[in-house]
């Protein structure tokens, strides 16, 4: 697409989205990777990279600010809550500030990003400090000041000794003086009563040492030094109050306690600087600490990957994980909707299929009944970099997950098995290395007979790369030696069509098509013979008309019919040409396509690298939606995986910063109308969405009339669900009453009548 087309699509989709409310979206976020913890009156606040949540101590009321509620940070680095102004504030790595207001609205401040004249890599926000209605923002260039009443910026201080920008790590106020810990110039201070404080000459060096943090506690300056000690200033010199042996990560105070957090320690000191708590471990967790605070008699500890914990200050021996239920982390690489669970895996690989650094995360699974459950790494035979997952359509409780280092995992009920080069025989899985186990398995997919296919990076000879686990438990291996030039066999997720042809993306050789039922026939579709725009194929999808959609590093192609593999020896793909005014344009021209998913109406969801996701019509000629971070609840424009629940129409977007879903309407069509249903029913006055009629057959005729038989809506299904905006032919909302829904199959042999009550 050209830039002009993208602008038009964005405008249209922005209007579409503004007409929808966030009832159409759900968030499936992790609350485990805590970057900051803050105290407030009767509450504790915790921030992850992309959201904030708070819990009330007395009522345990939970409040969450995330992208679904309009809270969309770049990457949170610090948080603050103002009791006086009832505002919750997050600072980001790029200088963005988000303010969640008392009325639930979110204010996004980009003044630092747009207006401060320093390089973008110097706009990180390190800390917030509130004093007399002003918020002092410590950044990598200096200090900016925000008026908390108006949420407007007042001024900026560049406090280097020559007026240059310098990283300010934390600020505090004692008396009328503002103290700032800098990275390069020690502790600097300036008098807040000085109207010329914007002049760097008005600032003094309080101490020229190397400091990391600073607070005011018990009417004294307290600071953490880079020598892994914390000191108080006596009025004449700094006096050590704590040797914490590890570098200090956070120094905080709630007024009555001083809290020092290191990677493996949380120290709490009282107003006499006596140590009242030293927490070093959390039972059953090998947690690394990131931040901590005290509210009342409770200590709250944030961890790198295990969530937020609370324990009693008076007896810190029993810990409770109080993070909301969610997946183990926000970076989800692949997601799969099985009949009973939504599964998520986190191990990834680079564009070059490099799994290093290796991931040691387990697997998460979700159901509406139990919420998120986690299978830890230790229970998975310590399989590393688990990067894909598939369920057996003939045995729906049987799940397989592929590791890009450790082999293949099978889940069946509570039983877990691992397959590798030691237990799969001579035709089974192979190791890339001969001196250590390096069994890279990818692309799992089932054929219609129930055999499991996958790719396996073999040894440097590259002889056998396609593997089949048959229904009888035996393994078969197929060589690609004659059709690929890549000795390391780097293959993306495959698709298997109705003829059992395997369509396998490769990184250098285009698209590899293989079918063992035709004398082990191979066809390679590439840029030379198959009209691909790039030989790096990232994804493939087979639609409901047996067309093959091919996503490459540099654009999109479509193979008109997968049946051509059976009768032809060379295949040519086509681009999709769309009309924009008088111009003909190639759909997704030169765009890197990360994933393609086909919904029940044969429409395509297409993920573009750093470009969000598009929903296009069945033939690609119309753009129905374009969702990006700036016009939807997507937390990131990089969508690793798209998964569709064919029963409900829910579309899941797994991104590098969390997972959200869009409640679509394109479910798979039913074989008959016996299970058709209407929801919501009744439609109450406060409901602002659309009425869905689901469980329909494809191309069924749907007519809706009032109780007197007057027609108000008519349509034909494409898939298994239609929606009605409760308007008479899209013009005005219908009145309160009972409405009749008449459905007949395409051939008229199957009919059903439903009712829906609308209350205005």
TrEMBL record:
The entry's keywords: Signal
Domain PorZ N-terminal beta-propeller intervals: 44-204
Residues of the Secretion system C-terminal sorting domain: 678-758
InterPro entries given in the database record: PorZ_N, Quinoprotein_ADH-like_sf, Reg_prop, Secre_tail, WD40/YVTN_repeat-like_dom_sf
Alphabetized Pfam families for the sequence: Por_Secre_tail, PorZ_N_b_propeller, Reg_prop
Protein name: Two-component regulator propeller domain-containing protein
Lineage: Bacteria, Pseudomonadati, Bacteroidota, Flavobacteriia, Flavobacteriales
């Amino acid at each position: 697409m050209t830039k002009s087309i993208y602008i038009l699509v964005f405008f249209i989709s922005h209007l579409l989205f503004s007409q929808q409310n966030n009832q159409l979206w759900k968030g499936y976020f992790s609350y485990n990777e805590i970057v900051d913890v803050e105290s407030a009156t009767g509450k504790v606040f915790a921030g992850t990279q992309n959201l904030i949540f708070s819990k009330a101590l007395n009522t345990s009321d939970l409040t969450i600010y995330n992208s679904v509620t309009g809270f969309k940070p770049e990457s949170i680095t610090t948080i603050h809550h103002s009791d006086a102004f009832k505002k919750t504030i997050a600072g980001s790595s790029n200088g963005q500030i988000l303010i969640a207001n008392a009325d639930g609205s979110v204010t996004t401040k980009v003044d630092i990003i747009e207006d401060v004249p320093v390089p973008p890599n110097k706009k990180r926000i390190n800390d917030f400090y509130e004093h007399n209605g002003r918020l002092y923002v410590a950044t990598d260039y200096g200090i900016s000041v925000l008026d908390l009443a108006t949420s407007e910026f007042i001024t900026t201080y560049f406090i280097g000794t020559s007026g240059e920008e310098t990283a300010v790590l934390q600020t505090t106020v004692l008396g009328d003086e503002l103290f700032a810990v800098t990275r390069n110039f020690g502790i600097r201070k300036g008098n807040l009563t000085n109207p010329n404080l914007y002049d760097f000459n008005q600032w003094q060096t309080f101490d020229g040492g190397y400091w990391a943090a600073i607070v005011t506690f018990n009417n004294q300056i307290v600071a953490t030094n880079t020598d892994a000690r914390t000191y108080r200033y006596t009025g004449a010199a700094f006096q050590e109050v704590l040797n914490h042996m590890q570098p200090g990560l956070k120094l905080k105070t709630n007024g009555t306690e001083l809290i020092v957090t290191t990677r493996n320690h949380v120290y709490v000191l009282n107003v006499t600087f006596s140590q009242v708590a030293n927490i070093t471990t959390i039972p059953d967790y090998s947690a690394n600490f990131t931040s901590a605070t005290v509210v009342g008699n409770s200590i709250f500890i944030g961890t790198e990957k295990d969530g937020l914990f609370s324990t009693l200050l008076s007896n810190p021996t029993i810990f409770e994980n109080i993070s909301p239920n969610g997946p183990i982390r926000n970076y989800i690489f692949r997601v799969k909707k099985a009949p009973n669970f939504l599964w998520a895996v986190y191990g990834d690989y680079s564009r070059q299929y490099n799994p290093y650094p290796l991931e040691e995360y387990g697997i998460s699974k979700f159901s509406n009944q139990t919420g998120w459950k986690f299978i830890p790494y230790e229970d998975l035979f310590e399989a590393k970099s688990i990067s894909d997952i598939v369920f057996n359509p003939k045995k729906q409780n049987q799940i397989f997950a592929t590791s890009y280092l450790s082999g293949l995992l099978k889940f069946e009920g509570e039983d877990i098995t691992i397959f590798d080069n030691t237990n799969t025989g001579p035709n089974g899985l192979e190791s890339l290395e001969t001196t250590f186990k390096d069994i890279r398995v990818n692309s799992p997919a089932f054929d219609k007979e129930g055999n499991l296919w996958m790719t396996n990076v073999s040894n440097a000879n590259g002889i056998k790369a396609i593997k089949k686990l048959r229904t009888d438990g035996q393994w078969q291996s197929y060589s690609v030696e004659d059709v690929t030039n890549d000795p390391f066999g780097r293959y993306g997720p495959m698709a298997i069509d109705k003829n059992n042809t395997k369509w396998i993306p490769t990184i250098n050789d285009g698209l590899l098509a293989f079918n063992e039922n035709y004398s082990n026939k191979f066809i390679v579709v590439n840029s030379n013979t198959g009209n691909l725009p790039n030989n790096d194929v990232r994804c493939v999808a087979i639609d409901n008309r047996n067309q093959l959609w091919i996503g490459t590093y540099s654009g999109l192609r479509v193979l008109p019919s997968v049946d051509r593999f059976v009768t032809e020896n060379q295949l040519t793909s086509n681009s999709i040409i769309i009309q924009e005014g008088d111009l003909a344009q190639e759909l997704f021209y030169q765009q890197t396509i990360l994933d393609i998913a086909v919904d029940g109406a044969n429409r395509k969801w297409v993920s573009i690298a750093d470009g969000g996701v598009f929903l296009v019509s069945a033939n690609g000629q119309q753009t129905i939606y374009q969702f990006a971070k700036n016009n939807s609840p997507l937390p990131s424009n990089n969508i690793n995986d798209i998964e569709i629940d064919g029963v409900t129409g829910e579309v899941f977007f797994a991104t590098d910063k969390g997972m959200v879903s869009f409640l679509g309407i394109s479910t798979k069509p039913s074989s008959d109308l016996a299970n058709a249903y209407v929801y919501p029913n009744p439609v109450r006055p406060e409901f602002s969405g659309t009425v869905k009629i689901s469980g329909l057959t494809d191309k069924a005729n749907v007519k809706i009339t009032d109780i007197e038989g007057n027609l108000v809506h008519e349509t034909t299904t494409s898939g298994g669900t239609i929606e009605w905006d409760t308007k008479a032919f899209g013009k005005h909302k219908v009145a309160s009453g009972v409405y009749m829904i008449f459905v007949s199959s395409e051939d008229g042999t199957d009919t059903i009548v439903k009712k829906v009550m609308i209350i205005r």
